[in-house]
Amino acid sequence: MVEAVRQTTNKGDQHMKKTLRFVGLDVHKDTIVIAVADQGADGEVRIYGTISSDLHAVERAVAKLRADGAELHVAYEAGPTGFGLYRQLRKMHIDCRVVAPSKMPVPGGRRQKTDRRDAELLARLLRAGELTAIHVPDEVDESIRDLTRARADAVDDLRRAKQRLKSFLLRAGYHYQGKANWGEKHQRYPRALSLPLAAHKAVLEEYLLALDQGCQRVARLDDLLAAQVPQWCHYPAVQALMAMRGFQLVAATVLVAEIDDIQRFAHQRAAVSHRAAPDLCVRSEGQRGGQARGRRPARGRARACARGQGPEGALSASCTRVTWGRKISKPSGAAICGAKRSTF
C-alpha cells in the first residue's frame, strides 16, 4: 500500500516537473533567428528557425515553443531595435534578458560570425548562466532619456553650424576681432557683413539660417525638458541634484535619466564607473549659445562639463546611498552630499 502511494507520488512529481528551454534570439530589423537549448549540460542546441521581427510572429513562435508546458528563458543582445521585444515577452510572463554585447564571453579560435551561430551561442551561454543582463528602463524613463539625448544632438549640430560659419568667414578674409563667445555682439558681426560676390552672399545666408535653426531647436528642446521633467516620477531626485553647485535642469536630468534606478548598483564604484558619469558633462548647460566653464574631455561623444561640480563629486560615497523617487522638502547641497546618510 505504501509502495503504491510512493509510486503515485513519484509519478505526480514527474508530471509536475517543468521542462526548461533556453532560447537565444539574434534580432535584426526585419528578421529574428531563434535557437533553442534544452536543459542539462548535454542538452541539444538547435536552430528553431527564422521568423519576421513583427511582434505577432514572435508571439506565435513563443506559443509553439511552450505548447507542451515548457518554461522559457529568452535572451538577446542589446542593439538598435530597442526594448520593444523585451517588454512584449515580459507581458507574456516570459523571463527575458537583454544582454550587453561587450560583456559576452567570446569563444576561442577563429570565429565565423553568422546569425545562426550567434543565436546558438546566446542559447548556450544563457543555459550556462554566463550572460550579463543590462538594466532596461520603463517606457516613461526611456522617453525622458531620449529627450535629453535629442537635446545633446541639437547642441552638437549647433556647434558644427557655428564652426562652419567661422571657417567660411575666415576663408573669405573676415576675422572677428572681439571676444568670440557667440554673444549678441558676436552674432551681429556676420549679419552686418556685405560680401562682394553673390555666391558668397548666398553661402553666408545659408550658414546664418542654419545657425538660427540650431538655436531655435535647442531652445525648443529646453522648453520641452522644462515642461516634461516636473511631471516625471524622478523629478525629486532632479531637484535634489539641482541644489548642488553646477547642476541645473539639463545636467541633473541627464544624470538621473541615464542612471535611472540607482539601487541596481551594488557599490558606489559601480555607479561612478557607469557610462552616465563621464557623459553627464553636457555642453553649455544653462547657456544657449554660450560657453560652459570647466570644459574637459569625456568618453564617447565629446561633451563639456556642466559648470562647476563634475559627476565624480556628484556620485561621491554619500551621494550614492540614495533612492530616486523619495519626496523631499527643501533640498540643500549640504543635506545631499555633506551628511553621511543622505537620501533623496
Question: Into which percentage range does the β-strand content fall?
Answer: 5-15%
Low-confidence stretches: 1-9, 281-344
Q: Shape, please? A: elongated
Name of the CATH first level of the largest domain = Alpha Beta
CA gyration radius, whole angstroms: 27 Å
Would you list the SSEs in sequence order as H and E? HEEEHEHEHHHHHHHHHH
The named CATH superfamily of the largest domain: YqgF/RNase H-like domain
The CATH architecture name of the largest domain reads 2-Layer Sandwich
Number of continuous helical runs: 13
Main sheet properties: 5 strands, mixed
Major sheet: arrangement of strands: 3-2-1-4-5
Helix content: 40-55%
Q: Kindly give the count of domains.
A: 3
Find the CATH topology of the largest domain: Nucleotidyltransferase, domain 5
Compute the number of strand runs: 5
The chain-level mean pLDDT equals 77
Which structural class do you get from the secondary structure elements?
Answer: alpha/beta
Question: Kindly, what is the distance between the CA atoms of the first and last residues, rounded to a whole number of angstroms?
Answer: 64 Å
Question: What can you tell me about this protein's structure?
Answer:
By secondary structure, the chain is an alpha/beta fold. The protein has 13 helices and five strands. The chain has a five-stranded mixed beta sheet with strand order 3-2-1-4-5. Strand 1 and strand 2 form a beta hairpin. The longest helix is centred in the middle third of the chain and has 33 residues, at 139-171.
